[in-house]
Specification:
This protein is of the alpha/beta class and 235 residues long. Helices cover 25% and strands 30% of the residues. Helix 1 packs parallel to helix 4. It starts with a helix and ends with a strand. GO terms for molecular function: 2-polyprenyl-6-hydroxyphenol methylase activity; 3-demethylubiquinol 3-O-methyltransferase activity.
Length: 235
């Protein structure tokens, strides 16, 4: 991958002529994303993210940390032992420059299992990294291995069924045969286009069923204003 997401983060922080990210999915048109949003303070975070941060405790793993805004609040404001990981080298370089003490360029499936965590965070549609519904068990199995016996996984997502048209009977018209939350994602930045990649939105009932099937408890913590939610998974 070209790491355009990380490049945008890096350019913004180091004032290297940053531009907005252009996003497009298999079910939406092109849209602009202001990179400054990734550097938001706690006060400017959505309620779901604020709640996840407030519930965090102990040793924390922030998966897909991006620019590191969640990790900074946990480390500096809450004095927690937090490790921020991301697959983007440039995002992690930015996190280091912002003062995050423990970082790692790593895919979650490749993270060593000799350290366990009290809180594992997956925010900004944390289910996205699962990619497809078929791969959810593989990721949940890995997360279980990284979790302390009394630990918690705090993860958010959205039910995107509202984005599909209704048929004459009031049901939803969903093209294809795959789960409707499986989409493909494209990024464009400074006239470069990232290779298309899969991204998963999970409705809460589907997440809950997957959790139960993999011997995890699942609790709905809070619902957002637009079909989004925060859930807590425990052993």
């Amino acid at each position: 991958m070209k790491d355009l997401f990380g490049q945008a983060i890096h350019d913004y922080y180091f004032n290297n002529h940053p531009e907005n990210l252009i996003t497009e999915t298999s079910i939406t048109e092109e849209d602009e994303m202001e990179v400054s949003y990734l550097f938001r303070s706690f006060e400017n975070m959505p309620l779901l993210e604020q709640k996840a941060i407030e519930l965090s405790k102990g040793k924390v793993l922030d998966i897909g940390c991006g620019a590191g805004s969640h990790s900074l609040v946990l480390q500096n404001n809450m004095q927690l032992d937090v490790t921020a990981i991301d697959i983007s080298e440039k995002a992690i370089a930015t996190c280091v420059s912002r003062g995050i003490k423990q970082t790692k360029v790593c895919h979650i499936l490749d993270l060593e299992e000799n350290i366990q965590y009290d809180t594992i965070l997956l925010l900004m549609n944390g289910t996205g990294i699962f990619g497809t519904l078929q791969d959810v068990p593989k990721f949940l199995h890995k997360l279980k291995k990284l979790l302390q016996p009394n630990g918690q996984i705090l993860i958010d997502s959205s039910d995107i069924i509202y984005m599909f048209d209704e048929d004459e009977d009031g049901g939803k018209w969903i093209p294809g045969t795959s789960y409707y939350g499986e989409i493909t994602f494209k990024l464009r930045y400074k006239n470069q286009t990232e290779d298309e990649f899969p991204w998963l939105y999970l409705d809460y009932n589907t997440l809950q069923n997957a959790a139960f099937a993999n011997n995890l408890n699942c609790e709905l913590v809070i619902e957002g204003a637009h079909f989004d939610y925060l859930a807590k998974l425990t052993l």
